[in-house]
Amino acid sequence: MTQQEPPSNPNMAGPAAQRHRVALMLVLIAAAMPVRTAVQLPLIPSVSVLDILLAAAAATLLIDLAFRPLDIGYPQLFALLCIPVVICGLSVLWSQGRGYTARSTIIYVEGIVAYLFALRELGGASPSRIMTYIKRFTYLLIIPAVLLLLHAPGFSPRGIELSPSSAEYLSYYSRLSHPVLGKSNNLATALAFFIPILLYWGHVHRDRRITRAGYIALIAVVLTLSRGVALALLITAACAALGNVTRHRGIDSRAAGKTLGGVAVIAAGIVLLYQFNPRTREFFGGRFSQENILIRSDFVTAAIEKLAERPFLGYGAGVPPDYELDLARVHNTYLQQVLNFGPLLGLIVSLSLIGTAVFFFSRWRTSGVARAVGFTLMAQLLIFAVESSFEGTVLRVLFYLSVGLATALTRASEAQEQLGREPGGGKVLHAP
To answer: ∠ CA 380-383-386 to the nearest 5 degrees?
Structure first.
């Protein structure tokens, strides 16, 4: 396959790039803690701070469009990201609940805005600078979860009243969960996006701060006790290790040492959480039983039965089949697309998501970072098979925002490596 050159970047480094990154940090803070306000709009029962900032970002992008083309990153990737948006919007024509579908379309549009905004704000930034923002965002996601577990004032689960004797209370306080994003699986999915990138960058560039952030994020995911996310990361790590051994015909002793150290730290974290948090011990008994698996299999069976009633175009994006709220999330993103859009269009949406990982893997000769991002998206695709996190309102926006950050990093790394290959361009540290 012919490798596509990094797209030209209209945003060059300089004072403008430095000034705009204040806005990027505001968006990252809001994305990590998307607190909802009392503002209500048609189709949107509760507007979050993130919604407000993304609306402002969309306005600035439209203003930019009057003076120059939008920076969309890689055109092929942007097209893949837009396919679900277009199909979601079209599904309003046959939707069983047009209000649900319109709201789902708005969320998709917010995701595209977040992607474009990240690309614009990071235009001209060096790869190491972009990694700093990724590291900060990772910590911003973890901090509210830790404060919730510590019962810090102001960080209790938002929008719900919990009794200490309820199962819901146990679910939140026995493991790492997020006060706004929701229970542990949501937090784990958001953090899992950055773990391969952080660990790769820290290892290749010998950056201890980035490596530390990667391990902290990995420990946080393990402490969510999210089995699906942990399994997805394990499979991804095994594939990455196998690929590395195949390419280099040997084992990297430095990487192996870091892996063993990481396993030891993770095990210690689990033991400490189990020992010092009584609710974790109480939760462990039922977490690893077959009951949850049976419940999810019942959801899948019910979803397939509903699909048989509308086999061609589905029920429309975001619509619970026949308004049965238990089927609003079937814990499988791909099955959810089929329910929303029917088998053909649902398959197209799923293939577009898979295509994002394929796109980055196809650039592995151009940049080692692209390969790391490919494995990151591979982990997300595996998570989507056991979670419906892509259907979450905020989580979908976070996915697009994360892809924007990863795309900016890949593009900057490719530009830097290309400069290093040019005569007089200087030396660049290449991926192993």
So the answer is: 155
Q: How far apart are CA 137 and CA 140, in angstroms?
A: 5
CA distances from 93 to 181, 316, 317 (A): 30, 8, 11
DSSP class of 183: S
Indicate if the pLDDT at residue 15 is higher than 80: no
pLDDT the model gives residue 275:
61
What does the CA dihedral 264, 196, 48, 341 come to, rounded to 10 degrees?
A: -120
pLDDT at residue 295 above 90? no
Domain ranges of the chain: 25-420
CA distances from 178 to 112, 231, 424 (A): 24, 21, 49
Burial class (CB in 10 A: 0-12, 13-18, 19+), 31: buried
The rounded Cα 317 to chain-centroid distance in angstroms is: 20
Select from 343, 323, 319, 324 the least CA-distant residue to 391: 319
User: Is 53:30 a contact under the CB 8 Å cutoff?
Assistant: yes
Mean of per-residue pLDDT scores for the chain: 82
3-class DSSP state of 90: helix
CB contact at 8 A, 81 and 367:
no
Q: Which of 219-228, 240-249, 284-293 has the lowest mean pLDDT?
A: 284-293
Determine the pLDDT at residue 387.
Answer: 78
Give mean pLDDT, residues 37-58. 86
The pLDDT value given to residue 214: 93
User: Which of 213-217, 236-240, 276-280 shows the highest mean pLDDT?
Assistant: 213-217
- Kindly calculate the radius of gyration of the chain based on its CA atoms and give it in whole angstroms: 22
What is the DSSP code string of 242-311? HHHHHHHTS--HHHHHHHHHHHHHHHHHHHHHHHH-HHHHHHHHHHTSSHHHHHHHHHHHHHHHHHHHST
**CA dist list (Å): 366 to 3, 359, 409, 421:** 7, 12, 13, 11
Q: What is the pLDDT of residues 339-363, one digit of tens each?
A: 889 899 999 999 999 999 999 999 8
CB 197 within 8 A of CB 376: yes
pTM score: 0.86
Bridge partners for 182 per DSSP = 178
